[in-house]
Amino acid sequence: MNERSWERLGAASGLVAAVLLLAAFVTAPSPPGLDASAATIIGYLGDHRVGMLTASLLVTLAAVAFLWFVAHLRHVLQRAEGGAEAFSPVVLVSGVSLATVCALGMVPLTALATLIARPVGLGESEAVRVLYGMHQLSLGPVGLLVALFAVSTGAAMVRRELAGPWLGWLGMIVAVIGLVAGVSSFFAALSGTAMFLAYAMGIAFALWLAAASVVMLLRPEVERVTTARGVFAR
């Protein structure tokens, strides 16, 4: 397999991650807020157990596909930067961290949806709320990591190191949404606004990821003849 084919495969992995992520949003019904009672959470998980398990699986698979895409971006940026190591390390670390936190954030929800099939005792109600809260509060770190990944990848796009500048500016918008959603998850976790921003961030990120993947799939970066500006040039 030549480099052009490998790059198409890497770009396709980003599209797969975006589609899986959007499918997870469609599969999972709107969850109760963080301030919901244990009875409400248990009822919600009992009514939508299969949907929640499916959504958890889709998000985890999306994280795996996203890791391949991040590795592809690292290769492309390292070549475009000529060894200067400007944005490529940040894109790699933030992307890997984002995938890891997303996958781990689904573990408490998966555990709840799996164990909810049996009756929940009175003493276990608070444990249900704690596990559910851990899942919901993981959206804070996810938002901040989305912001870091989108701003670093977007900056590389603006500098024409990959894809195109217009995608880079869209990435900056996604970064702002991620930053606002991440911060609000820490300071306004009990509000409906925080949940709305989290959903908006997820959908915006998935659509931006899909657009970037399609552009890179149609025109592999190895075909581009560019001379990137030196980041550390005086």
Summarize the structure.
With 234 residues, the protein is mostly helical.
Quaternary form: single chain
Poorly predicted regions: 225-234
**Which strand-content bin applies to the residues?**
under 5%
When the domains are counted, the total is 1
Please count the helical segments.
9
Q: What is the general shape?
A: elongated
- Tally the beta strands: 0
Order of helices and strands: HHHHHHHHH
Mean pLDDT, nearest integer?
A: 85
Helical content band:
over 70%
> Roughly how many Å apart are the termini?
40 Å
- Biggest sheet layout: none
Keywords:
234 residues, mainly alpha, 9 helices, disordered C terminus
Molecular structure report:
The chain has 234 residues and is mostly helical. The chain has one domain. Helices cover 76% and strands 0% of the residues. The chain contains nine helices and no strands. The chain has helices at 3-27, 38-47, 49-80, 88-105, 107-115, 125-137, 139-158, 165-187, 192-218. α1 packs antiparallel against α3 (49-80). It is elongated and about 60 Å long.
Please render the helix and strand layout as text:
Elements: H1 3-27, H2 38-47, H3 49-80, H4 88-105, H5 107-115, H6 125-137, H7 139-158, H8 165-187, H9 192-218
Helix pairs in contact: 1-3, 1-9, 2-6, 3-4, 3-5, 4-7, 5-6, 7-8, 8-9
